[in-house]
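Table S2 (continued). Query chain:
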Amino acid sequence: MTIWNLGSINADMVYALPHLPEPGETLAASGLQRFLGGKGANMSVAAARAGSRVSHIGAVGSDGLWARDRLIEYGVDTRHISEVDVPTGHAIIAVDAQGENLIILFQGANHAITGDQIGQALSSAVSGDLLVMQNETNAQIEAAILGRDMGLTVCYAAAPFQAEAVQVVLPHLDFLILNEVEAEQLQEATGLAPSHLPVEHVIVTFGSKGARYYQRGSDPQVFPAHKVSAVDTTGAGDTFTGYVLAGMDRGMPMAQAISQANRAAALMVTRHGTADVIPDLKEVRAAQFD
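Corresponding output:
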């Protein structure tokens, strides 16, 4: 099967800071690194490294062809990434000494994806394939409706969070993943707790406290996180999501997919960077945790 990812592609500019800045504060960075990033690219790389076939649907400017090449290196099918006359998306990421981060996002080419491009890509999809989206591109509702009509398993990572964006795609979803704060905001907007959302599979992540899985009609399951010394939490949630999707794609029981994703996310927070440092399946299986 294939995971089709309508996903963002960014250049991540990561600055090391002594602490996250307060309003009006000027800080000198002690380091700067450029990584392939964007929630979409991160999830594509994570799912590919977890053993799935991944086809990315997205866009870059002429300044971002290196990002498309990097995705190819990581095993992602990039035939449906178009080059557009808009600068490639990018993120300015500040990481403090404790590994916490602050992110400024420029959408760029991620909002220049056309409906024709999505339709052409998904014309090769078959019933049972997965379609995943995040809130960093345009055309999410069009893709969700098309995916549902085609019999795809439609998945949504609700970040960056906007309650309205989630509510628009909610009727078409089979899988929804969001963090604790986003779950609270969605409940405020809809009046529905995660266990009552009209979605078959819902996962709420709690960072270092793990995750909770809700399957419609069943009691929630809790999955504690592994204890590690975090140096950078950037991309950990995307790594978790990509590994869960790969587990679903490969027919794993959800509990097994989430447990494996927890291991991948635990490894990820011990590394500086985003898509370029996402662990592969061999590393995840070999990892030892206390």
